[in-house]
Amino acid sequence: MKIAKTEYRGSAALALSTRVLELVATTEYGPRVMSLRAMDAPNAGNLFFEFPSDEKPFHGFNLRGGHRLWHGPEDIVRTYQTDDAPLEVLPLPRGVSLAQPVEEKTGLQKTIQLELLGENTVKVTHTLGNRGMWGIECAPWAVTMMPIGGHAVVPLLPKGSHEGGDLLPRYTLIPWSFTDLSLPVWSFRRDFIGIDPGKAVSAQKLGISNFPGWAAYWRAGVTFVKFARKAQGVACPDLDSCFEVFTNGKLIELETLGSLQKIEPGKDAVHIEYWTLFTDLPEPSTDAAFSCYLVPKVNRWLGGLT
């Protein structure tokens, strides 16, 4: 593992690297992870989406790209507080902690901790701290933006048996008001939902309330996987969506959400993701590629997490 000072588009940043991957996180704004690269697939470039440097703010917020921490459910005022100020940077034994100043209007403080667990696993700890004077109901919301040109998959829970006594539902699919499930963006398979973001001609979004906890995006021969455990017995925002996928034909977002809770003054809400990369898998757009190649790899990786 190596941590070094670097730059990202002229702004100060830190690079965290192993022999397998490299992360770049900015320190002059954020917290944001703006770049993720596979060391043995240099032609794939940055796996994260990057807006042009002159992109106009969206509701006053500089989207920029990469990976960010928001607070959900989405609110035009609370969610879109800017993150343009320099960060407090603290070293960790296996990484770094990046904390923004307290948001003036909300009293919330966002912190992302990046820790390298071995050569090919990143632990990403997202913390919303209430530094204000009253409780705030919200949830940590971890958003990863990636370029089009690839294929995403969201695995479904194992199938049950009606004859065997499985009489009740196990999860809910949550489409947004603008989502059109008839579009070729969506591919509903037996064991997974496939998403081809390049086929979106307008904004599309879908949530799910219960699933195996991981999702993947394959592009240019590199498969990015993110995993987050859902807390049991608590609800998530957006009709209990613990995972959401968004695309508008220009990018795709893989989003995980923590529990919706009232964060009291002086308290924190924490949401943890784990990331990994694979460079030896086919595009998971078929049942065979998903079940025979991707799932076994992911299950072995998940088995090694503590």
Please give a structural write-up:
By secondary structure, the chain is mostly beta strands. It has one domain (2-158, 169-303): Beta-galactosidase, Chain A, domain 5 (Distorted Sandwich). Helix content is 7%, strand content 43%. The chain has two helices and 21 strands. It has helices at residues 237-240, 287-303; strands spanning 2-8, 11-17, 21-26, 32-38, 67-72, 88-92, 95-99, 108-116, 122-130, 136-147, 151-155, 173-175, 186-188, 192-195, 204-208, 214-219, 222-227, 243-247, 251-257, 261-263, 268-278. The strands form two sheets. Strands 1, 2, 3, 4, 5, 10, 12, 15, 18, 19 and 20 form an eleven-stranded antiparallel β-sheet that branches. Strands 6-7-8-9-21-17-16-11-14-13 form a ten-stranded antiparallel β-sheet, with helices on one face. β3 and β4 (32-38) form a beta hairpin. The chain is globular, with a radius of gyration of 19 Å. The mean pLDDT is 97.
Task: Please outline the helices and strands.
Layout: E1 2-8, E2 11-17, E3 21-26, E4 32-38, E5 67-72, E6 88-92, E7 95-99, E8 108-116, E9 122-130, E10 136-147, E11 151-155, E12 173-175, E13 186-188, E14 192-195, E15 204-208, E16 214-219, E17 222-227, H1 237-240, E18 243-247, E19 251-257, E20 261-263, E21 268-278, H2 287-303
Antiparallel strand pairs: 1-2, 2-3, 3-4, 4-5, 5-10, 6-7, 7-8, 8-9, 9-21, 10-19, 10-20, 11-14, 11-16, 12-15, 13-14, 15-18, 16-17, 17-21, 18-19
